[in-house]
């Protein structure tokens, strides 16, 4: 990688995670979930591995997971794996912004970034939802998790990266993804937290992932998400090795 490209992408990761100005994490008053542990001050290690909820940064995934996105994208380009890049569950849009920055840095014009989100937060599954989703109760934090689509678009525009290569898919995944006009996928990044959201995304999109493409699971440490991943892989006899990214996330490369 040439020096200019490397410096640009490294700077994008630092700005998107805001390790430059070190914004404090959100506290319990912003995330009213019983199990949530609000951090009182910025911790560089937690920000590196995505274990806090930033108050200002455009992503909460941390530097290690952005490194993983970059490595997967580089492998896709190197091996000429066909398809676009999609994230299901984008919050403030930081990961998708980085994906678009990567395409810009490499001069790629024939691939798109798909930004899929309700833009209202996490669905309230009610008492009849999957027990692990009910127990998680993430919808209680929707004032923080529900970022309107216009705000996400404005975040792209702040980096001069909002253009026709960025496509938005608003709505609950069960409604928006089955008819999404995505033909082939080189990277499917799942960040829906819930069992149902994860399963909805896999059922609609996995068949579109090209051989040699990647499936990245941001919430693999959550029992709700991991149960969906394990069940889907069992149902479809997927044997590709699941590799850890950090203490919370994992990915695999589709072999067939």
From TrEMBL:
This is O-methyltransferase. It comes from the Bacteria. Signal peptide: none annotated. The keyword S-adenosyl-L-methionine applies. PANTHER family: MACROCIN O-METHYLTRANSFERASE. The keyword Membrane does not apply. Pathway: Antibiotic biosynthesis. Belongs to the methyltransferase TylF/MycF family. One of its GO terms (biological process) is antibiotic biosynthetic process. Coiled coil: none annotated. Keywords: Antibiotic biosynthesis, Magnesium, Metal-binding, Methyltransferase, S-adenosyl-L-methionine, Transferase. Pfam families: TylF (PF05711).
């Amino acid at each position: 990688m040439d020096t200019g490209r490397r410096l640009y992408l490294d700077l994008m990761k630092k700005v998107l995670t805001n390790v430059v100005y070190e914004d404090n994490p959100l506290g319990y008053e912003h995330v009213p979930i019983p199990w949530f542990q609000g951090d009182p001050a910025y911790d560089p290690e937690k920000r590196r591995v995505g274990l806090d909820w930033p108050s200002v940064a455009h992503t909460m995934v941390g530097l290690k997971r952005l490194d993983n996105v970059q490595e997967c994208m580089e492998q896709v380009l190197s091996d000429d794996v066909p398809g676009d890049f999609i994230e299901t569950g984008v919050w403030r849009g930081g990961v998708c912004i980085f994906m678009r920055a990567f395409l810009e840095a490499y001069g790629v014009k024939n691939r798109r970034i798909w930004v899929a989100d309700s833009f209202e937060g996490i669905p309230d599954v009610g008492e009849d939802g999957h027990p692990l989703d009910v127990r998680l109760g993430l919808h209680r934090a929707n004032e923080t998790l529900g970022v309107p689509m216009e705000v996400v678009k404005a975040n792209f525009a702040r980096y001069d990266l909002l253009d026709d290569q960025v496509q938005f898919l608003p709505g609950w995944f069960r409604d928006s993804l089955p008819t999404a006009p995505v033909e082939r996928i080189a990277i499917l990044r799942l960040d829906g937290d819930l069992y149902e959201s994860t399963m909805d995304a896999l059922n609609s999109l996995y068949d579109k992932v090209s051989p040699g493409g990647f499936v990245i699971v941001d919430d693999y440490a959550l029992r709700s998400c991991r149960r969906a991943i394990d069940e889907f892989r069992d149902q479809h006899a997927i044997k590709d090795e699941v590799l850890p990214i950090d203490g919370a996330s994992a990915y695999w490369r589709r072999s067939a």
